[in-house]
User: Fold these one by one.
Assistant:
Number 1:
Amino acid sequence: MNIIACIKQVPNSAHVRIDPETKALVREGVESIVNPYDMHALEAGLSLKERYGGKVTVLTMGPPQAEAALREALSCGADEAVLLSDRAFAGSDTWATTYILSLGIEKIGHFDLIICGKQAIDGDTAQVGPGLAERLNIPYVTYVRRIEFVENGAMRVQRLMDDGYDVLDLPLPALLTVVKEINEPRLPSLKAKIRAKNQQIPVYGAKELGADEKKIGLAGSFTEVTEIFAPKWDRKRLMIEGPVEKQVEVLLKNIKQI
Amino acid sequence: MDYFLTDEQKMIVDLARKIAEEKVVPVRAELDEKEEFPWKIMEDLGKADLFGIYIPEKYGGFGGGCFENCLAVEQLGRACIGVATTFAASGLGAFPILFWGSEEQRQKYLPEIASGRKLAAFGLTEAGAGSDAGGIRTTATKDGDDYILNGTKQWITNGGEAEIYTIIALTDREKGARGASAFIVEKGEAGFSFGKKERKMGLRASSTRELIFDHCRIPKDRLIGREGMGFIVAMKTLDLARPGIGALSVGLSQGALDAAVQYAKERVQFGNPIISFQAVQHMLADMATQTEAGRALVYAVARYIDSNPKDIRKVSAMAKLFPSDVAMQVTTDAVQVFGGYGYMKDYPVEKMMRDAKILQIYEGTNQIQRSVIGQALNKEYSRTK
């Protein structure tokens, strides 16, 4: 199986802050990590490769330093990595990002399966996976918690729902987005780390991808961030005292008033 | 401090540290409480290729040396020396095969040890043979194409969990230590069983057990080197392994220092964080200085060992002695910095102090290390005069 795992380098959300002027995330000085959900996507790809053979290519779009995220994925056992990077990509929203990623996937060529994390911990949109599948016109399942098997060009997966899970069959090629319940991402290995250090990572810009400049970056994005604020949440604290019957009465009255 | 590590050495540190922080720290208190063997962590270390650090590439290892191994052990020791000892003891069991084993023995056993698929263990100590290792009573009697082992080994790290054991036994009782030989015994062999699992003050994630040989028959090709080499193999194996105990100690001291400094910055008394008080500052300063001195010594000795010098006994004893005494002091002081909280199991320093004590005892007590150093000095100075 040829598997593509899409990953994103994100600021470690434990230390992130938002610029009050630009409303954008301040990335400077904040440690970058691979989006945790994407590590589960990579792990899903690596374990499929172990079961069925093939190779795993990791793909990311980002600034040149996003190469570090790709090398981390290679350290965990991915076979190849591709970086999509260009100043012209800056400011892309999920719409433009899926366009650029779809071009990157065309560049990589043949694939059987694309796996993404369910969402990134910085933007939290969960739009890129499904959006990419739409661009590529392939079937997709989101929130996959288990891959049961791959057989005769099709696969069976379980989709996590609020009240249980669905079992779905889908033909390949396809796209999955995965939840963290699906697996436990493996750690890097020493040998793979050393191999990853020297591995060539091709970088494709807008020109190499043949991207339409009106569809990328800020110009190609419909999303505009006008304001970011923490919603006001006034909590009231009410201590109810007295005998239990009385307490229940007061509590009930208060609940009805909400 | 920058010890000018190569990129590959830095990768080892990063990887071992990641495993220590993500896989060991969250479970160390539970492993300690339940005296549970850390199999899951051993599997992770195996997958990360860390068991093969010092094993040559042709046997599936990384091809590093004593120094690289110490770097990994230090990071694991920072989180839990029970886990780190389990890891390092597999190396102790492997060294005799690596350095004195036949090509066939190396090819058979080293790849399995390097991958972490199998753990190794080293069996020398007996009830009557501790510091006086020459007093062992376990025998290996030649019988046709086999040897038959009889006797009981005591306090064997990884006992019961390891698959591959290097055992020192007497092939010639008359000659005492010079009649000792080293053998490889595999778990599951008839006549080889395990005695009680010890309950310990610290190091409780590590398994410490008796090995019982009752007419245990093994083929003669399990002999490591020649008959009569056993004591030399044992002593040189311990020489090679001692900087590892030093590295473990440095890791433990660092872990205790990290916890103590962090706590001293947060704990407020008399209106100020206690780190602002000179009494606390001076304790922390000594802890940090001693830890760094221990690290510098371990790194220097490990690098020296990797240059293949003729005699390492004195320096390797130093690399065990100093950092382990430091670890006892630093962990005790860490508990002191924490005050009453340090004595409670809610904070990690209580376990660290209990764990530290073993470092002054195992792999040769610190009194034995001082004797080794003293004897070496005596020899050195009579040579030069």
Number 2:
Amino acid sequence: MFKKLLSPYAFYNHTTPLVPWILAGFMLCFSYGIFAGLFIAPADYQQGDGFRIIYVHVPSAFTAMLIYFTMAICAMITLIWRVKITAICMSCSAPMGAWFTLLALITGSIWGKPMWGTWWIWDARLTSVLILLFIYLGFIALQSVIDDVQTRDRATSIITIVGIINLPIIHYSVVWWSTLHQGPTISKLSAPSIALSMLYPLLAMIAAFILFYVLIVMIRMRNQILLREIETAWVRKVAMTL
Amino acid sequence: MQLNYLHAFIQITKHEIKIILRSRFTWITPLVFYIMVVCLFPLAIGHDQTLLANMAPGVIWVAALLATIISMGHVFRNDFDEGYLDLLLVSTYPLSLLALTKITSHWISHGLPLILISPLLGLLLNLNTEELCALIFTLLLGTPVLSLIGAIGAALTVTVRSNGLLLPMLMIPFYIPVLIFGTGIMIMTHNHEPVIAYYAMMGAFVLLSLVFAPLLTGQALKIGASG
């Protein structure tokens, strides 16, 4: 019963009515978040209007890490139970994770230029996000060179699991490294508490980014399912109705 | 038949090392590559002795890392092409043990020569005796980790053609912790700071990868061979 629910066919059928709802949820969160973030939230007393890039930067960084976590869970399920749908989810998530990571790095560097006076510092957090991007790129490279679907799914699962074991180690070694090598580092933006009128738009934007990820990954997965199951009768039926 | 894991491990490792040593090109090329990369830096940066000594840990470690990951590509390739890998896979010994034999023989044939030649390179880069000792110790702890982690990537890409740069791209992010601690120890030795805790961390990396890497390598080989 549970296994049937996880079949590509069931996934395709069950997600068909969900897509417009997720789209609506995303539009709602995004329009509130972007409007309230840009116009209603007060300007920061130190950074002025410059801080408003937080409404893109923090959600994209958060989503980038969330996507890797999702991929790791999918990888374990794929390896242990040989479920197809999680493998599809993993392979569709990776490019999105890479884009969100890149977006976080770019917005962070645009934010850093006026606030810290430099586009890039070898700070622990920046460095570990950069390494996360490299890991995503390695995943995508491996995925694009293996032709056989089953081999590809299981090989990318293994590299994802190696990544999730290594990510904390990489993170902490980078933290220690930057405390080892750097002198007095530029202190982090001091924002001990954030005003509610700033916080709500931020939460809305995080929700919007997650919904956007879910939406796009769902559409990508549906396409991938049709592509993979192209030989089956139900895909032919779907193709006829389009 | 009684399975004697230790006996099998020693026999297969001996056999592997003999094969690698007979094809000199396989193990000499990474070594020459290592020496050449290190020698490029003084040429590119200039011969300021203090600058060279400051840069030496990073230069030597990055060169060793690159030489290891490049030589990693050969580890399972020939066996896969000749069908020897399939033979190992159907044998009664656990896959992780077989993966460990391949990793050990790679380290003995590639990692040890790197370590033996590195004092010479350290002298070229103007390191003092204390730093040379630190260099040897960190490489002694670090190169097994490089071989162990690299083997996972080598096993995953064994079926892939034209992967000259795929393997480095895939595995270099996972080499970062050992690189940080390897060079960190040398810099701290240079500054006469206590380093014992950092050696302990390197030891932890060795043990951790010794537990996980053979397992994952074995699984990866199974996937590649069955695909």
